[in-house]
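Quick one: structure tokens for this chain, please?
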Amino acid sequence: MEKPKDLFKKCFDFTLADEVKAQGVYPFFHPIDENEGPVVSFGGRKLVMAGSNNYLGLTSNPRVKEASINAIKKYGTSCSGSRYMTGTVNLHLELERQLADFFEKESCLLFSTGYQTGQGIIPTLVQRGEYLVSDRDNHASLVAAAIMAQGAGAKLVRFNHNNMDDLERVLQSIPDNAPRLIVVDGVFSVSGEIVELPRLVELAKQYGARIVIDDAHAVGVIGKGGRGTASEFNLVDDVDLIMGTFSKTFGSLGGYVVGEEKVIDYIKHNASSLIFSASPTPASVAAVLVSLQIIRDQPELMTRLVENTDYVRQGLLKAGFRLMPSRTAIVTVLISDQMKTLLFWKKLFDAGVYVNAFIRPGVMPGHEALRTSFMATHEKEHLDKVITEFCTIGKELGVI
């Protein structure tokens, strides 16, 4: 009998990370010692954080932190069970009520992470013989959920990124009587680009499709009072389900979906990622409750976020950088070379600015980039620091 190949061979053959580390430009898994929001500490050094999704700066808000501490004192550190069994406390129900009201939908369901939210919605709703229609640039969590649905017999079809003509082509190819769900990011996480929602809604109505929007990077950034993409285009009633995460604007951890009560109830009683996962911790939920109240009460935070991001965007454009098209809190600088991207990241890091490096295989060749994102709590001195260091290093490396 032939000896089987070692399953771990691919692990032992993986050398890319070691090669990058050896060159001193490894951009991942750097531990933060202390996080003050717009400024963080790495190994005792203070850096301007220009790569966080903490859009309104609420992770370091005293009220949010106090709410988490008080929740631990009352409920402990864990619910020690799933929502389906022993893991529901009154905080979960209160947050679900408030989020449904905030997003102007009938009902809401919480999940333990944003990643699990898509896995709870998509394979549960799209089943054998039904069609899932997905943007090619959807977030990895939506891609994983789509593959789960496909593995269970659903038909997965993709359309070219934010291309509504191609979406129509795909919808036309689906059998007339087949149920279909369009799944798309509201704000795409790499570029910060907003989905062409008005045309998408028009096509969904024309071809009888339901819509799920992942608003992870939209809430607190666009829409009336920060209510996201559907609100931005006055299409709340036309989008069936809105999902998102608490790990960005809401300053916590977990996920949610809002929509029609009967649909949410169906997901609640059939989603494996909900039924077989421990529920969101009391501390996480308490933080979101206070964050939501702050978002309602302080719309000036969103105004400040927009002003901060536009200030950096205009500064980088004026300097000659190529940016991905966006008007959200994400400003992505195209470098289009793997090693130059890594070198640029390391020089920024050494100069006191932390950003995110996007390299292959995470992006296509020629699309290597530095992704920056900003907060309402950044001060002008922080933003000027980011622009100045980008310009200095960009000239040094021949990017501008």
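The first helix runs from residue 9 to 13.
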